[in-house]
Write a structure and sequence with these properties.
Layout: E1 2-11, E2 19-24, E3 45-48, H1 58-62, E4 68-70, E5 81-83, H2 93-97, E6 103-106, E7 108-110, H3 112-120, H4 123-129, E8 132-136, H5 144-156, E9 160-165, H6 171-178, E10 183-187, H7 193-200, H8 205-221, E11 224-231, H9 239-249, E12 256-261, H10 267-272, H11 287-299
Parallel strand pairs: 2-8, 8-9, 9-10, 10-11, 11-12
Antiparallel strand pairs: 1-2, 1-7, 3-6, 4-5
């Protein structure tokens, strides 16, 4: 069973053509700028959507573990349900009795045959557009056995496959996936190992080894490798972009680099999960700054978007 956050059909930014993008649950990194924190844990998440709540209290009454209670001191018509996540067993009883849908469970498990049936619905779309499936996350390789099985099923069905990964996985497991996938995005975070540890909770030595492995294997297989990096001002920009360009230039093969602009679209999810976002006052880089970094990459002889 593959633990999945959500499935988006008709995606157009996740590889060539039109794709079905599957967001996997679970990730070994904890990037401070993560825009999908609901994908970090492998298990489903219970979230409270305040704007839908009518204050009926049925959810709290239904919870046998007493994991829900209404916060006191809220403004009129602004109800707040507090979730004791340590006591919540994710039974879903509160969700089933909440008529305004103010409580939701994010994430569920799919069997590989069930996933294949879903993606098969759009086979004609893939064929006409040159698309296929995309696995992202979270981190797909966090569930590498099921991902490998799914890739094999897609290959047998003639469906093009793409994966977006942070490349933090054992080299043995990573090698098996790289030898199955058609198109690979690797998201690099920071080139300095100490900074990487501070910003993500892990060093980057394994990531860089796996990136070099992917470059070698995909060049031999004549498949595609794209390096991505989200540019976060004051955190991994400046000299780090130059270091990344030098690293990419040293690889046997890379199709291109994609520099992604840091954004704040996922900030509200931290509150829904009962967490605090640490970069609240950080502004995205300007288009002019992004253009300058793209030129820097191109000046290293590397195609860049």
């Amino acid at each position: 069973m593959l633990n999945v956050l959500k499935i988006d059909r008709f995606a157009i930014h996740d590889g060539p053509g039109i794709r079905t993008t599957i967001y996997c649950k679970g990730c070994p990194l904890r990037c401070v700028w993560c825009s999908n924190p609901e994908g970090q844990e492998p298990d489903p998440n219970l979230v409270f959507l305040q704007t839908r709540c009518i204050g009926c209290g049925v959810c709290a009454d239904s919870c046998s573990n007493k994991a829900l209670k209404f916060a006191t001191g809220c403004a009129a018509d602004k109800y707040e349900v507090e979730i004791d996540r340590a006591n919540c067993n994710m039974c879903g009883d509160c969700v089933s009795v909440c008529s305004p849908k103010a409580l939701e469970v994010w994430g569920r498990s799919y069997s590989i045959p069930d996933l294949l049936r879903i993606v098969e619905q759009d086979r004609q779309v893939y064929r006409k557009s040159g698309g296929g499936i995309m696995l992202t996350g979270g981190e797909p390789l966090f569930q590498w056995r099921y991902v490998r099985e799914f890739l094999q099923s897609c290959y047998q069905s003639g469906i093009h496959t793409a994966i977006e990964t942070c490349a933090y996985s054992s080299e043995e497991h990573f090698d098996q996936i790289v030898n199955q996938v058609d198109w690979l995005f690797i998201d690099l975070k920071h080139m300095d190992s100490n900074a990487h540890l501070k910003l993500t909770g892990k060093r980057n030595d394994l990531i860089l080894r796996n990136t070099r492995l992917a470059s070698t294997v995909l060049a031999r297989r004549r498949k595609v490798l794209v390096i991505r990096m989200t540019v976060v001002p004051g955190i991994n920009d400046g000299e780090n972009i130059y270091a990344m360009a030098n690293f990419v230039r040293s690889l046997p093969y890379v199709e291109r680099v994609e520099l992604l602009q840091y954004h704040t679209y996922g900030v509200h999810k931290y509150r829904l999960l009962g967490r605090t976002y640490s970069l609240l006052n950080l502004e995205p880089p300007t288009p002019e700054v992004m253009a300058g970094y793209r030129k820097l990459i191109e000046d290293h002889g590397i195609a860049c978007l």
